[in-house]
Amino acid sequence: MPGRGKLIAVIGDEDTCTGFLLGGIGELNKNRKPNFLVVEKDTSITEIEETFKSFLARNDIGIILINQFIAEMIRHAIDAHMESIPAVLEIPSKEHPYDASKDSILRRAKGMFCAEDFR
């Protein structure tokens, strides 16, 4: 992708994805794969995890936004991601407020600056 920046990917509920898509983040790669997943009641955890891993493997994605309540479903996969790019950011949804104590990426970042978090 010469001359182009990296994409933002979204894994979220319908309201979250709709908001970001209206903001212009929606893209299809050369294999016609979108950079978002709308998680509904019948979306399996396996599908969420496979989509997350596919976003990690794509070289055109720089940031993955995921609703925190969905991140809780695949916490082991998020905790296993150690690379800085793509960055994984947990965001709130309309029905589920953000809880910083559940955000493993934030805890890891705090640990870089405060040794007491690891004791």
Automatic annotation (TrEMBL):
<keyword id="KW-0813">Transport</keyword>
<keyword id="KW-0375">Hydrogen ion transport</keyword>
<comment type="function">
    <text>Subunit of the V1 complex of vacuolar(H+)-ATPase (V-ATPase), a multisubunit enzyme composed of a peripheral complex (V1) that hydrolyzes ATP and a membrane integral complex (V0) that translocates protons. V-ATPase is responsible for acidifying and maintaining the pH of intracellular compartments and in some cell types, is targeted to the plasma membrane, where it is responsible for acidifying the extracellular environment.</text>
</comment>
<dbReference type="GO" id="GO:0046961">
    <property type="term" value="F:proton-transporting ATPase activity, rotational mechanism"/>
</dbReference>
<comment type="similarity">
    <text>Belongs to the V-ATPase F subunit family.</text>
</comment>
<protein>
    <recommendedName>
        <fullName>V-type proton ATPase subunit F</fullName>
    </recommendedName>
</protein>
<comment type="subunit">
    <text>V-ATPase is a heteromultimeric enzyme made up of two complexes: the ATP-hydrolytic V1 complex and the proton translocation V0 complex.</text>
</comment>
<dbReference type="InterPro" id="IPR005772">
    <property type="entry name" value="ATPase_V1-cplx_fsu_euk"/>
</dbReference>
<dbReference type="InterPro" id="IPR008218">
    <property type="entry name" value="ATPase_V1-cplx_f_g_su"/>
</dbReference>
<dbReference type="InterPro" id="IPR036906">
    <property type="entry name" value="ATPase_V1_fsu_sf"/>
</dbReference>
<dbReference type="Pfam" id="PF01990">
    <property type="entry name" value="ATP-synt_F"/>
</dbReference>
<keyword id="KW-0406">Ion transport</keyword>
<dbReference type="GO" id="GO:0033180">
    <property type="term" value="C:proton-transporting V-type ATPase, V1 domain"/>
</dbReference>
